[in-house]
């Protein structure tokens, strides 16, 4: 049973710019182009019937297309044991509103997520031997990629495999043109 999540695909130009940030380092497992995305809501494993119901519920999404821009870098975990190295987004208000609507639509299948929503694109996963990320964070603190128009939301399946997870789009949900 695949793990499900709702997110955004990145345009090729932003994907390439983020891939160019990769630096060799102990314990860093950089994401591939196929793994770069922005997760709006992790769902987890669901059997086929509830997955189909959830996918149908998302058809009721009423959101307009919006402009998004990747900017800044950070990490999850402690400075001594970071777990995820990420790129953030500038002005995340449209993402927050979209996330809130998604949470309402999927509530019958997915409990509310108590964690604060931090929109980000995972750049690398940090193993136990990962050292300080401060040099990278300092070098990339001014990261600002070109903005793009977000025109669709995706329901993804995540399948764990050798070399990391593989993501596939199950359903695309177009956002309304302004």
From TrEMBL:
A motif (HXTX 1) lies at residues 37-40. A motif (HXTX 2) lies at residues 120-123. GO terms for molecular function: 2',3'-cyclic-nucleotide 3'-phosphodiesterase activity; ligase activity; RNA 2',3'-cyclic 3'-phosphodiesterase activity. It catalyses: a 3'-end 2',3'-cyclophospho-ribonucleotide-RNA + H2O = a 3'-end 2'-phospho-ribonucleotide-RNA + H(+). It comes from the Bacteria. It holds the Pfam family 2_5_RNA_ligase2. The keyword Hydrolase applies. The active site is at residues 37, 120. Its EC number is 3.1.4.58. The keyword Ligase applies. Keywords: Hydrolase, Ligase. Transmembrane segments: none annotated. SUPFAM superfamilies: LigT-like. Hydrolyzes RNA 2',3'-cyclic phosphodiester to an RNA 2'-phosphomonoester. Belongs to the 2H phosphoesterase superfamily. ThpR family. This is RNA 2',3'-cyclic phosphodiesterase. It comes from Halopseudomonas pachastrellae.
């Amino acid at each position: 049973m695949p793990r499900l999540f709702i997110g955004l695909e990145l345009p090729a130009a932003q994907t390439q710019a983020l891939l160019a940030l990769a630096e060799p380092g102990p314990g860093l497992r950089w994401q591939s182009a196929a793994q770069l995305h922005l997760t709006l809501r992790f769902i987890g494993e669901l059997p086929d019937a509830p997955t189909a119901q959830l996918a149908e519920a998302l058809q009721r999404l009423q959101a307009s297309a919006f402009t998004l821009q990747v900017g800044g870098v950070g990490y999850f975990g402690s400075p001594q044991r970071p777990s995820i190295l990420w790129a953030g987004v500038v002005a995340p208000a449209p993402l927050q509103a979209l996330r809130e609507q998604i949470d309402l639509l999927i509530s019958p299948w997915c409990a509310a997520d108590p964690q604060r929503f931090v929109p980000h694109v995972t750049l690398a996963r940090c193993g136990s031997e990962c050292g300080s990320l401060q040099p990278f964070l300092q070098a990339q603190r001014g990261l600002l990629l070109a903005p793009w128009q977000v025109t669709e939301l995706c329901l993804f399946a995540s399948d764990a495999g050798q070399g990391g997870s593989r993501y596939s789009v199950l359903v695309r949900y177009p956002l309304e043109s302004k």
